[in-house]
Specification:
Muramoyl-pentapeptide Carboxypeptidase, domain 2; alpha+beta; globular; about 10% strand
Length: about 240
């Protein structure tokens, strides 16, 4: 079961600090190893992102949509734990290292490579609708699903507040599967994406605590960069 957090609770008292221009990202900010640039308690975002999200949520509320955050900033360690859990489960089911990685990266990233490390990206649902089980399923956002109204509203209005679907339903896009819930704040995320292109990910992923690390070659990581890290909505590049 995913956990969402009410915006009013998590972002109250933050808006006074949300107008400062975000500085160029550090290496630790790009790979989820610091939170010094973020605000919030139950979940964390960059101040400018928090402000834009609050304004967007207020507008959606006028049309009966209660925007709720399922996930915002995610640390390197948290992403590694997610990866390791999935890797070990797949391994126990008999998947080869190559098949294991391929299954995980349908939706989940290698630690140090997630856009959620930046404090610019959010997973959203309509908190006014009760849904049992995993809320982040594409079927919930289509064909009369509980979050279809939210999806349609976001597709029409999110760009007004600087947010764009990071992994849209585009046959020309490679990498991660379609995620109608994942939105990225372009004014900052573009800067982070461009800075991230300059990082050599191979040394970072020589992490002895990362499941399957010994099977990760530079070729694998370079291919993953081209297909997945770069497989986003063009406006976010």
């Amino acid at each position: 079961m995913k956990i969402w957090f009410p915006l009013a609770l998590c972002l109250s008292g933050l808006l006074s600090s949300c107008h400062a221009q975000a500085p160029d990202p550090t290496s630790d900010q790009l790979v989820g190893k610091t939170t010094t640039h973020l605000v919030g308690d139950s979940y964390q975002l960059q101040p400018q992102v928090a402000e834009a999200l609050t304004r967007m949520a207020e507008a959606a509320a006028q049309e009966g949509i209660a925007i709720k955050v399922v996930s915002a900033f995610r640390s390197y360690e948290r992403q590694r734990a997610i990866w390791n859990r999935k890797y070990r489960q797949n391994e126990a089911e008999g998947l080869s290292p190559e098949a294991n990685r391929a299954k995980i990266i349908e939706y989940s990233t290698l630690p140090g490579t997630s856009r959620h490390h930046w404090g610019t990206d959010i997973d959203l649902i309509d908190g006014g609708v009760d849904v049992e089980g995993d809320v982040l399923l594409a079927q919930h956002f289509h064909q009369g699903g509980p979050f279809e109204k939210l999806r349609l509203w976001l597709e029409k209005n999110a760009a007004t507040y600087g947010f764009y679907c990071a992994y849209p339903d585009d046959p020309n896009r490679s990498g991660f599967a379609y995620e109608p819930w994942h939105y990225s704040y372009a004014p900052i995320a573009q800067t982070y994406y461009r800075a991230y292109q300059k990082i050599d990910r191979y040394p970072m992923l020589q992490d002895s605590l990362l499941a399957g690390q010994k099977h990760l070659t530079r070729t694998h990581i370079d291919r993953y960069r081209n297909t997945h890290i770069n497989g986003i909505a063009p406006i976010l590049k």
